[in-house]
């Protein structure tokens, strides 16, 4: 499972507007944003890595005007962390990811007064992008580039779900990456403060996951940032699995 997920991350980065292969790494650069959450690299499984490879990776990020940063499943390249730390990288966070299968998924009801829809127009995509940015504490500013990335993902088979009130206000939503090796990542799950604690995150996470399974995905995976979100995802059928590392160099 760890290997399949890491391979899917590699495949996803290879679809970025400016994907670059640097020895045993794939870096996904986006010219429309300098966000480190969008621009990062990951190792290719089963390919040896040396300190010189890490230096080359740093050089590629520097040349692109981006912060050197990686995300990867730890078990697939266990020797990499020591090399990165030796090159001046700092661990941002370690996450344990969760997985769900069609057999374990439970789809809860949608909270009253809200409806779930897949954005099909750019204004709907913009509303979803703005709502999730707000839900994450404005760590980034929603922009036209977010709309473009979301539209591009949907065109390649990715899924997006937004929750709207009857008046058209977006309460939050989330996405799933285009399928790769019959799996996908569910990500960007965010609910705006006025709509929290009503079961909405569970509802649209389950709906995104259900739609992924309807499109032939074998299992979906996601990461939880804290105890509350863990409980949300476990209630709809996600179970803890492997570990991922986020690490960067200032």
Q: Could you please describe the fold and organization of this structure?
A:
- With 250 residues, the protein is α+β, with helices and mostly antiparallel strands.
- The protein folds into two domains: 2-96, Gcn5-related N-acetyltransferase (GNAT) (Aminopeptidase, 3-Layer(aba) Sandwich), CATH 3.40.630; 114-242, 3-Layer(aba) Sandwich (Aminopeptidase), CATH 3.40.630.30.
- It has seven helices and eleven strands.
- A hairpin with a 4-residue loop joins strand 7 (159-165) and strand 8 (170-176).
- The mean pLDDT is 94.
- GO terms for molecular function: acyltransferase activity, transferring groups other than amino-acyl groups.
The CATH topology assignment of the largest domain is Aminopeptidase
Gap between N and C termini? 32 Å
In terms of quaternary structure, the protein is: single chain
CATH class of the largest domain: Alpha Beta
Largest sheet: 8 strands, mixed
Outline, from the CA principal axes? globular
- Write down the overall mean pLDDT: 94
SSE arrangement, N to C: HEEEHEHEEHHEEEHEHE
Which structural class do the helices and strands define? alpha+beta
- What share of residues are in beta strands? 25-35%
Helix content: 25-40%
- Helix count, per DSSP? 7
Specify the CATH architecture of the largest domain.
Answer: 3-Layer(aba) Sandwich
E-strand count: 11
CATH homologous superfamily of the largest domain - what is it? Answer: Gcn5-related N-acetyltransferase (GNAT)
Poorly predicted runs are none
Order of strands in the sheet with the most strands?
4-11-5-10-9-8-7-6
Number of domains: 2
Rg to the nearest angstrom?
Answer: 18 Å
């Amino acid at each position: 499972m760890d290997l399949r997920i890491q391979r899917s991350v590699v495949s996803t980065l290879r679809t970025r507007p400016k994907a670059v292969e640097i020895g045993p790494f794939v870096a996904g650069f986006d010219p429309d944003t300098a966000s480190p959450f969008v621009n990062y690299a990951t190792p290719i499984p089963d390919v040896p890595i040396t300190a010189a490879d890490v230096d080359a990776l740093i050089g590629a990020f520097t040349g692109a005007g981006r912060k050197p940063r990686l995300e990867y499943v730890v078990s697939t390249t266990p020797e990499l962390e020591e090399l990165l730390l030796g090159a001046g990288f700092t661990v941002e966070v370690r996450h344990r990811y969760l997985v769900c299968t069609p057999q374990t998924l439970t789809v809860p009801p949608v909270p009253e007064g809200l409806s779930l829809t897949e954005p099909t127009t750019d204004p709907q995509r913009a509303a979803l992008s703005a709502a999730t940015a707000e839900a994450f504490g404005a760590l980034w500013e929603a922009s036209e580039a977010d709309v473009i990335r979301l539209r591009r993902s949907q065109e390649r088979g990715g899924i997006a779900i937004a929750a709207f009130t009857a008046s058209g206000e977006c309460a939050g939503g989330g996405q799933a990456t285009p399928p790769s090796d019959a799996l996908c990542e569910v990500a960007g799950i965010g609910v705006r403060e006025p709509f929290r604690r009503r079961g909405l995150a569970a509802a649209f996470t389950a709906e995104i996951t259900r739609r992924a399974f309807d499109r032939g995905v074998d299992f979906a995976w996601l990461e939880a940032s804290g105890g509350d979100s863990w409980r949300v995802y476990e209630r709809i059928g996600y179970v803890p699995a492997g570990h991922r590392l986020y690490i960067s160099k200032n």
